[in-house]
Design a protein that fits this description.
The complex is a heterotrimer, with 1 copy of chain A (about 250 residues) and 2 copies of chain B (about 190 residues). Chain A is mainly α and about 250 residues long. Chain A folds into 2 domains: about 90 residues, no CATH class; about 100 residues, Arc Repressor Mutant, subunit A (Orthogonal Bundle). Chain A contains 11 helices and 3 strands, in the order αααααααααβααββ. A 3-stranded antiparallel beta sheet of chain A has the order 1-3-2. In chain A, a hairpin with an 8-residue loop joins β2 and β3. The longest helix of chain A has 27 residues. The N and C termini of chain A lie far apart (about 75 Å). By secondary structure, chain B is of the alpha+beta class. Chain B has 2 domains: about 70 residues, Arc Repressor Mutant, subunit A; about 100 residues, Winged helix-like DNA-binding domain superfamily/Winged helix DNA-binding domain (Arc Repressor Mutant, subunit A). Chain B is built from 9 helices and 5 strands; from the N terminus they run αβααββααααββαα. In chain B, the strands form 2 sheets. A 3-stranded antiparallel beta sheet of chain B has the order 1-3-2. In chain B, β4 and β5 form a beta hairpin. In chain B, α2 packs across α3 and α5 crosses α7. Classes of the chains: A mainly alpha (about 250), B alpha+beta (about 190). Chains in contact: A-B, A-C, B-C. The interface between A and B is large, with 49 and 52 residues.
């Protein structure tokens, strides 16, 4: 029994919640919130390996459930007004979702039935086809001007800008590492032989991408380990001086 | 023009077009009013039915289309290629039923009901031509509005949106009763 | 199986196939001999003829096909001649504007901008000859590139694409600012 629950895939937090209510045979209007919340959390605990995007949706519901749970545990304030059940909103959501879920089964049945009907591709006789009138572009375009088209384009582009996630859009792209450590080490060794003494910052001025800087730094550490270069720094955050230990 | 000839014309038109033909167009060909034309077509539908013919005429919104009868399926499948139909997952069906009942609707509203993002589902439904854009909502961000297509009606065997099973307060009541019964069962045990 | 049902099956088969179907295949579906099947079809041909139906069955070598009667052509032409109400819907206009300003562009890129599948819209625009294929992008999957046609330039009264009003970096910046302001507004509430 437990195994099937584990393997079952739920379409979303509401789907999972409905499943738990059914499994526990409880009334949607009187959710035993403590019990259901525990079961819900237990389930999503087992979902760890799921996609984070999907997971976050389940976590929102978990937070809602815990919020309701804590509200219900708090002693009720002695007020004249009748307090609303903290579960009311969730109940409404569940009911609505359940209705559409129910309708989707109905649709599925109808589709299976309708599938048994076959249609026919148009077979318009050649004599008739010749009379098919071409599309009149002038009429089609009629009152649409270039200015209007431009306005439409602007509004579409604006919509796209609206949609950009302010946080994720800052992430930038992950690009394939273009410089390998080996290449850098060879380059650096030659550079060191040529320059003898040089500063780390000076070296970095030539590097363009962050990746290149990182790989160069790694190459320096590597060469230092093998004793090919010696580095010194007076104070933290100061420039690093590199000295070649390889005889020219 | 006698009825027999009018019926022959309608039959020929629906046969050769294959697709759904608007009532208005058929009426124009017959040089009759839409009401008169509709009456003739309804008469034909009845006749086809009574004669147990292999083909039938179906009504989709304000259009008519000719297709085979369901009962013929098992024979047809021996010879005809089954048209490629898209398999609708539960997610797609749920999303589709929300759109069908609440159209025109935005993605955001669908997400509110399902509690999960619906981007992928809506895009797939648009791709399958079961759902289409109906324009934009006059609200901040001007979000797209979605609704069902004629193809939706056809592939679910629904004549018009009004024909969809009703979803109302009574049904919610029914769910409630079911839930209560379930509870009583539990108490009885 | 009674004759009525056999006839219905043949009707459904010929209808749904559209093209000519070999006698042998029809016989197989009915589980009858070729001779018996032929006899039934001949009977149907006679009946269609006698009833002055809009469709008929014709024999082509050892195959049969359903088609409209010649007398019906003038009415079919009437249907074909009826002006189709082609309209540029909001969806089509938005897609067209994106293609006009961002060409050459792939369907995927259009979808990224609009957030929904654009297959249908692009196909319609191609059908209307406002948009055409420009070749393929040298990228995985070698997707098709789309751009506007000469017909597009002509009907919008543009000499060349350079004449299209440009959307520049400044404007994009402006949109960004507007979007940010809207966001702040929301946060303030």
């Amino acid at each position: 029994m437990e195994l099937t629950v584990k393997l079952q895939v739920f379409e979303g937090p509401l789907d999972l919640l409905l499943h738990l209510l059914e499994k526990n045979k409880v009334n949607i209007y009187d959710i035993p919130i403590v019990e259901i919340t525990n079961q819900y959390l237990e389930y999503i605990g087992e979902m760890k390996r799921q996609d984070l995007n999907i997971m976050s949706e389940f976590l929102v519901m978990a937070a809602t459930l815990i919020d309701i749970k804590s509200k219900m545990l708090l002693p009720k304030e002695e007020t004249e007004e009748e307090e609303e059940d903290p579960r009311a909103e969730l109940v409404q959501k569940l009911l609505e979702y359940k209705m559409y879920k129910c309708m989707s089964y109905e649709l599925k049945d109808r589709q299976m039935d309708a599938e048994r009907v076959l249609f026919k591709v148009p077979t318009i006789p050649d004599e008739v086809r010749q009379y098919e009138e071409p599309i009149d572009i002038e009429e089609l375009v009629s009152d649409i001007t270039l200015t209007k088209l431009n306005a439409i384009f602007k509004s579409v582009m604006k919509k796209q800008v609206d949609k950009i996630d302010p946080i994720r859009s800052q992430f930038g792209k992950i690009e394939k590492e273009e410089v390998s450590l080996e290449e850098r080490m060879v380059y650096l060794e030659e550079y060191a032989m040529e320059h003898k003494n040089f500063s780390f910052r000076g070296l970095l001025e030539e590097q363009s991408s962050k990746m290149e800087i990182i790989v160069t730094f790694l190459a320096i550490l590597e060469l230092m380990k093998t004793g090919k270069i010696f580095i010194s720094q007076e104070n933290i955050f100061d420039d690093i001086f590199i000295e070649s230990r390889v005889a020219a | 023009m006698v009825l027999e000839q009018q019926e022959a014309i309608i039959e020929a038109v629906l046969f050769s077009m294959g697709e759904s033909v608007e009532l208005e167009k058929i009426a124009e060909v017959l040089e009759l009013s839409k009401e008169e034309t509709k009456k003739i077509i309804y008469g034909m539908m009845e006749k086809y039915e009574k004669e147990n013919r292999g083909i039938q005429i179906i009504e989709i919104e304000d259009a008519f289309q000719m297709c085979t009868r369901k009962e013929m399926y098992e024979y047809l499948i021996k010879i005809a290629k089954q048209p490629k139909r898209h398999v609708l997952t539960d997610v797609l069906l749920e999303t589709l039923s929300i759109i069908a009942y609440k159209q025109p609707i935005t993605k955001l509203e669908i997400e509110k009901i399902r509690g999960v993002s619906c981007d992928h589902a809506v895009n797939k439904l648009v791709e399958y031509n079961l759902v289409c854009e109906l324009g934009r909502l006059d609200a901040p961000g001007r979000p797209l509005l979605f609704g069902t297509t004629e193809e939706f009606l056809r592939s679910f065997g629904v004549q018009s949106l009004e024909e969809l099973p009703v979803l109302n307060a009574e049904q919610v009541e029914e769910f409630k009763q079911q839930a209560e019964e379930e509870m009583h069962l539990k108490l009885d045990v």
